[in-house]
Design goal:
This protein is of the alpha/beta class. It has 15 helices and 18 strands. Helix 3 packs across helix 4, helix 3 crosses helix 8 and helix 9 crosses helix 14. The chain is elongated, with a radius of gyration of 32 Å. This is Calcium-binding protein.
Length: 393
């Protein structure tokens, strides 16, 4: 494990980290376990480890570097410790022109620790399971692959991920944000933004992981873990995301479909979810209440709840059932009335119902059956039908 720490008066940018410049200065101090290399501009590097040194040519010839400290004008710039870098490797990198990026990837390819300054830092951990702490500035923090623990600390901090938003998962759990993709996951605190390969989003936008909902939505896990939410989260983090597991359970629909549970739990969806895990799944209880049809069949609820299926299901569970509210929406008649909807949705009744809730009601559309082509000539006035009035032509 390599540790990299910023000094107190300069920002740290690991993109500029370089340990191959040991040939570019003058060795001004040498012992078997320490070398001091001085550069123009009052800069110096302090190397610790075990060394062989040619006093005639003033050249470093062998040994192992265990730490590197760079300073300017007597003030620490960066300290790199816990190294196990053969001098021969560092000299070969310098003589062979190995790219700085390849060198950094080799140096920081393990389980490393990076600590920033009070300024704006750029810290990259590359491979391995890294621990990164930003400091007080506005930092760019990149754990690379592996399992990384990242604390942005103060400032407006951004974590870099190497996958698109669509190929990632992000959830909040116990005050931390977990961002998961095929490369591993980051455990984040005090991080304001997550930068994916295609877009940057606010960390606060990640949903809270609901362990009971996850268990209820995946009955094999409910059988294995019962109501253990921590075990549920460990499963999701390690396996569930990559398996494409569902995170949410329709607890409101469960209450709406089961009047005895609505009487027992009211609108307490957590208790309802727990009941399903412990009892309801074994009783083959339903939880597929069609909240959209319920909204469409009761336009006053569209006015009250908009397109909120949870609110609609809870309304039916606690009030609508006792009021004798209708559950059915005549989507077929709705489509038959409007050629533009037929062109858009074909015979998709679910899409037609969704359209009425989202837009059709506000547009003044109705779902009453069309009058027969023969016999008594009845015409339904749209606005009047919305007020439950039939106009006879």
């Amino acid at each position: 494990m390599v540790s990299v720490s910023a000094g107190s008066q300069s920002s740290l940018n690991t993109d500029a980290l370089d340990v191959t410049n040991i040939q570019g200065g003058t060795i001004t101090g040498a012992t078997p376990d320490q070398l001091v290399i001085t550069y123009p501009g009052n800069r110096f590097t302090d190397l610790r480890g075990n060394f062989t040194y040619d006093p005639l040519t003033k050249a470093l010839t062998g040994g192992t570097i265990t730490s590197v400290t760079n300073a300017s004008n007597g003030v620490l710039d960066v300290a790199v410790s816990d190294l196990n870098l053969p001098v021969a490797t560092a000299l070969n990198w310098a003589s062979n022109g190995t790219s700085p990026e390849a060198i950094r990837a080799a140096l920081l390819g393990g389980n490393d620790s990076l600590s920033g300054s009070e300024l704006n830092d750029t810290l990259r951990g590359y491979a391995g399971d890294d621990t990164i702490k930003g400091g007080m500035g506005d930092d760019l923090l990149d754990g690379g692959s592996g399992v990384n623990v990242i604390d942005g600390s103060d400032g407006i901090d951004t974590v870099v991920r190497h996958a698109s938003l669509a190929d990632s998962g992000a959830v909040k759990h116990n005050g931390e944000i977990y961002v998961i993709d095929a490369n591993g996951y980051d455990r984040l605190t005090n991080v304001e933004f997550i930068q994916y390969t295609d877009q940057t989003v606010a960390g606060a936008s990640a949903p809270v992981f609901d362990g009971l909902s996850y268990l209820a939505a995946n009955t094999d896990l409910a059988a294995a873990y019962g109501t253990d939410s921590e075990a549920a989260f460990d499963h999701y983090r390690s396996f569930g995301w990559s398996e494409g597991r569902t995170l949410t359970f329709n607890a409101a629909g469960y209450l709406a479909d089961n009047p005895d549970l609505a009487a027992a739990f009211g609108t307490n969806t957590a208790d309802a979810t727990r009941h399903y895990i412990e009892t309801g799944r074994n009783e083959n209880r339903r939880f597929d209440f069609d909240a959209e049809s319920y909204l469409a069949a009761n336009p006053d609820l569209i006015q009250a709840f908009g397109n909120d299926p949870t609110a609609a299901a809870l309304h039916y569970a606690t009030i609508g059932r006792t009021e004798g509210r209708s559950l059915g929406f005549d989507a077929q008649s709705y489509l038959a009335r409007y050629p533009d909807l037929q062109a858009a949705f074909g015979s998709d009744l679910q899409a037609a119902t969704a359209h009425y809730v989202a837009a059709g009601y506000e547009e003044g559309r109705v779902a009453a059956p069309l009058a027969p082509a023969t016999g008594a000539a009845f015409a339904v006035d749209d606005a009047a039908q919305r007020n439950a009035t039939l106009t006879i032509a």
